[in-house]
Design goal:
ten-stranded mixed beta sheet, five-stranded mixed beta sheet, 3 domains, about 525 residues
Length: about 525
Amino acid sequence: MRINPTEVLGIANSIAKFGEIVAGTKNEVFLLNYIRSFVEDYSDEVVLEPVPVTSWHEEYCYVESEGKTYRCAIQPPYSGSIDFEFKNNEVVFLSHDKVLDGEQLEQEVYDRVVVVETPRDPDDIATIAITLATKNPKMLVFSDARETIRRIVILNKLVALYERAEGLRTPVIVLPGSVAKKILVATSARVLGSSHTFRSHGYNLLAWRYRGRGSIYLIAHHDHWLSGASDNVLGVALVTALYKMVSESILKNMGISLALFTAEEGFPETINSFYWLVGSRYFVSKHYGKLFDELIAAVNIDVVYGEKARVSTANPILMSMLRGLGPIESDSIVFDSFSFTQAGLPSLTLHAFQDVLTNGVYHSELDALEAININTVEIFAEKAVQVLKKLAEYSDKVEIRELESTLSSEIAKQGGVNLDVAEALYAFFKELKKCHGHSITRLFNNFVRASAKTFVDIDIGSRLGVREFTVLLKCFDHVFSIPTYGLNNAVECYESHKFNIDLLKYIVCEVCKCEYSKAVR
């Protein structure tokens, strides 16, 4: 089976016409009704599932300077009006180092318009803004060297926890670098803008085609900041095309389902510092029983860009199945697949996230369909079809020895584990090999839920470039365990892993009656 990239681009162009899609807005409903009309003929059931959200809307943002007007972008979820007129002696430019150093900032920043260059990782706009906001500037302006505007969520808390948070009271905008330079030298300038938050409902679009045993879910988030071509107009277009075109011969009597999630970019009804993946987390929580019974894998497509479709998963069974499709990275808290991983459900993401960051496209107006090469769509479509074929071929042929080998390789790649956990793993697999006639996949879901943990360095906020990372059975000191606290150091973390593996070994024996079963493989 071959997916026609021209058809995918055609779907993407239709989606792009709806403009910026923020969860809980009318634009979102208009878009989903369009997609619904597109997939209904290929579905046994289609549902729009309401999800409580906090929505956000920018009415306008522009800068007036020396008789000219320039567009700017307010950083969500700022709520309020902006009308600041200032002279050039009220503007100060700061380097990243000076911001993070913090010395004498109060005197330089207080009640001034502060201009800072957009950092290499645009998400660090939030780190810099939080630091500067404590010094009471009038406004923060980020000068983008890529000559674009972009949106980055800025809350008063950085660590991804279920901890109540709110937007900054200080307005933060992004301007193209050349415009920001004009503000620095102009006699005077004026910034005008308005944006607000409001309670609303976003919607997950869910479609099912029932065919025999189990189901593969094709998933993507449909909300996006600004033009959002790679993130995630093309992802939606591609999973929609796959859902329509995937053939019975590939699926081998499996069901296929489509889930387009709301509010991947934000925000929950009560905003907290883990503000993203709202729609997928809601879906997994609400439908966990059904997913546990029937899910073969959730295949997420997000950030379609460049010349390489990367595969990320935290599930060793999927790692084993997908051997031969190139290097496999760990799942990440930035992807909707993470909502499934948290629940121990098999999931993966096809993406080019790092490439979008490196090339400065992330959450900006540079992320336009005109900049996407048709070869990119072909690369991602081909990789998605290869993944579906592997899942269909190996879903009921899990080799425990190969699974053990895959997990060992992954642990070695991460730098190993401590001796107690290694011994517990050996004993666990010894009993698992006796599970003749039982679903290894279901048993292993509990293993993934217990062993995949996400961390972030404790120096987040004090330096740039700090991102969350997910690992299997690996523990660290000087990190936060997220999205919930609970593990204070590596010793406690490894003790937790050993306890969970020992408990799973007991469950395996109970389920498989291992003392009476014949060892297989």
